[in-house]
Design brief:
This protein is an alpha/beta fold. It has one domain: 3-Layer(aba) Sandwich (Rossmann fold). It has 10 helices and 5 strands, in the order αβαβααβααβαααβα. Strands 2-3-1-4-5 form a 5-stranded parallel β-sheet, sandwiched between helices. The longest helix has 25 residues.
């Protein structure tokens, strides 16, 4: 995924995509995902790690709710990665990530992830480019370890929202009572660094793509959820799973 320019990619569904029809398709996909997740859990041979990245207000929480709440909660774990604690900072940057990786039979969702350590840290000058390159190589090695030694299948999603849509959603957090709990004054400050974030996301796409990224238009939640659910469905179907026989 070389030379990706996010400003050249649409953040919206194509004009010929019908919203109502897509929502109907999504319902069917979610029904399939419930069955596939149950099969994954029962077979216990594979695991699925879903990495969700995106700017503030790109819809990471909503996506998790819309796509995964129909699944058996015994087999799904959501891990949000916020600012590291003092204990986490005393270890290598992947320490807090690795023990959240999924066991066989499980689906784990990273709401933000190890990629924050080569994004936020660079935007705010916490690490230099040389350190970032070393970290990205470590990330590639980490993802290779999971895929080759634990049958973990990784799906990485970048929720591609426009800056205008982001600002509108952030304003809603200041005006709508049911969204005020999400308001963080720092979000507006981070939005002003949009260009820097886009630059470093593009760098990540170029140097951490052994496991490919899925860039998801995210201005419309219905289309975002449909694309992500469809991608997960195809990935699970491709595992050719079977229910184990009765134990003797």
């Amino acid at each position: 995924m070389n030379n990706i320019k996010l400003k050249e990619l649409s953040t919206r569904a194509p004009n010929d995509v019908d919203k109502a029809a897509t929502k109907v398709k999504l319902v069917g996909i979610l029904e399939d995902l419930e069955k596939l997740q149950n099969l994954l859990y029962a077979e216990g041979k594979h695991s699925l790690l879903i990495v969700i990245q995106g700017m503030d207000a790109s819809g990471k929480d909503g996506l998790t709710r819309d796509v995964f709440t129909s699944m058996n909660p015994q087999g799904v774990v959501v891990s949000p990665f916020k600012e590291p604690t003092e204990e986490e900072l005393s270890h290598d940057f992947l320490w807090r990530i690795h023990h959240k990786a999924p066991a066989k039979g499980m689906i784990h969702i990273f709401n933000r992830s190890h990629y924050e350590d080569v994004l936020v840290t660079r935007v705010h000058g916490m690490i230099d480019d040389a350190t970032a390159r070393k970290r990205m190589q470590a990330i590639n090695d980490f993802e290779k370890l999971l895929t080759e030694h634990n049958d973990t299948h990784i799906l990485k999603f970048y929720l591609h929202i426009s800056q205008q849509e982001q600002l509108e959603r952030l304003e809603e957090r200041m005006s709508l009572p049911h969204k005020m709990w999400k308001y963080n004054p720092d979000d507006i400050k981070e939005s002003k660094l949009w260009g820097h974030y886009m630059k470093y996301y593009e760098d990540v796409f170029e140097h951490c793509n052994n496991v490919p990224w899925h860039i998801i238009p995210a201005d419309q939640n219905w289309y975002k959820s449909y694309l992500v659910a469809q991608t997960i469905q195809k990935a699970l179907e491709g595992l050719n799973m079977k229910f184990p026989g009765m134990k003797k």
